[in-house]
């Protein structure tokens, strides 16, 4: 048997080529993270408090807000601790947990974006079956689709995490990155990593590509339906909404596809893309999907008014 030192802790070396910028990055990332928390936390009570928002579209948007909160919170607090000059270490068990939840929530979001695109496809005008929308997207189907995204993401994360951490790791425990991601961890392994790399390529890169392709097919069909709307103002409004949604999807899927489909990605490029995925996309999603919506704004005003009225009565 080989004699390897048992690794009990990993040292996260941080974002490559950012020496001397820690304070600036700390305040920048903190502001992004606070905006992410605020935007996603506001959406949930708005959806729950308004009966008008108890529809399949807002049900999935509520799920997306929960995933965005969890996804950004998986890595960002540790990044902020590192930038503030505190401990760079993360325990072996902590690294396993971070990698699991990162891929669990990230993969679940990929599935959820695909389900949301299908929901929009069913809900748009002919030929996308508007009369049968509530029959197709009933409560039972929505619950099954949401549960399926959770279960699919969980299975995906279990497979990747078990393959990554069943390997032996050498005495060197310095992770040349700012969180526990698969490429950085596998570079420290002493054993054969080809199986883990192949499964990671298939499960992350190709799976994201397939989901992204299905989303594009849905939005292509939606675009064809929108083009048949007679009102120029209606077409412009619908296309504007679709463009915003496609931008959000590109921000979500682009980083994953670029990172995992490259044989040897640049460390700096990889860090920038992952930061976009971890911080910027969860911050933009509430603005793109919900907070620009009149119904959501009305629900928020109503919720705050009721809350203020209740406080005054006390």
UniProtKB/TrEMBL annotation:
Subcellular location: Cell membrane
GO MF term list: G protein-coupled receptor activity; olfactory receptor activity
Domain of life where this protein originates: Eukaryota
Keywords: Cell membrane, G-protein coupled receptor, Membrane, Olfaction, Receptor, Sensory transduction, Transducer, Transmembrane, Transmembrane helix
Primary subcellular site in the record, as a coarse category: membrane
Membrane association type: Multi-pass membrane protein
Spans through the membrane: 24-48, 139-159, 204-222, 242-261, 267-291
Keyword Transmembrane helix among record annotations: yes
Ranges of residues in domain G-protein coupled receptors family 1 profile: 39-289
CDD domains per UniProt: 7tmA_OR10D-like
Cellular component GO terms, alphabetical: plasma membrane
Pfam family, one: 7tm_4
Function as written in the Swiss-Prot or TrEMBL entry: Putative odorant or sperm cell receptor.
PANTHER family, per database record: OLFACTORY RECEPTOR
Protein name: Olfactory receptor 10D4
Species annotation: Leptonychotes weddellii
């Amino acid at each position: 048997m080989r004699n390897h030192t048992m690794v009990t802790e990993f040292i996260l070396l941080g974002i490559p080529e950012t020496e001397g910028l820690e304070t600036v990055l700390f305040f920048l990332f903190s502001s992004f993270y606070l905006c992410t928390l605020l935007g996603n936390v506001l959406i949930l009570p708005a959806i729950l408090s308004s009966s008008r928002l108890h529809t399949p579209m807002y049900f999935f948007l509520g799920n997306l807000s929960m995933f965005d909160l969890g996804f950004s919170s998986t890595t960002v607090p540790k990044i902020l601790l590192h930038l503030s000059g505190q401990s760079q270490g993360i325990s072996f068990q902590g690294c396993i947990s971070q990698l699991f939840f990162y891929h669990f929530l990230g993969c679940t979001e990929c599935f959820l974006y695909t389900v949301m695109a299908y929901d929009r496809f069913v809900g748009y005008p002919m030929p996308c079956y508007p009369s049968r929308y509530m029959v197709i997207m009933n409560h039972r189907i929505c619950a099954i689709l949401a549960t399926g995204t959770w279960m699919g993401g969980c299975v995906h994360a279990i497979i990747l995490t078990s393959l990554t951490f069943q390997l032996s790791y050498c005495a060197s425990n310095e992770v040349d990155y700012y969180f526990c991601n698969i490429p950085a961890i596998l570079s420290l392994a002493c054993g054969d990593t080809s199986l883990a790399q192949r499964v990671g390529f298939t499960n992350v890169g190709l799976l994201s590509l397939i989901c992204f392709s299905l989303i594009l097919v849905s939005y292509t069909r939606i675009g064809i339906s929108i083009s048949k709307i007679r009102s120029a103002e209606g077409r412009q409004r619908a296309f504007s909404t679709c463009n915003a949604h496609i931008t959000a999807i590109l921000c979500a899927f682009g980083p994953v596809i670029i990172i995992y489909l490259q044989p040897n990605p640049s460390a700096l490029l990889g860090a920038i893309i992952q930061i976009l995925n971890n911080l910027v996309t969860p911050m933009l999603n509430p603005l793109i999907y919900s907070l620009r919506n009149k119904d959501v704004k009305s629900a928020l005003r109503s919720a705050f008014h009721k809350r203020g009225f209740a406080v005054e009565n006390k």
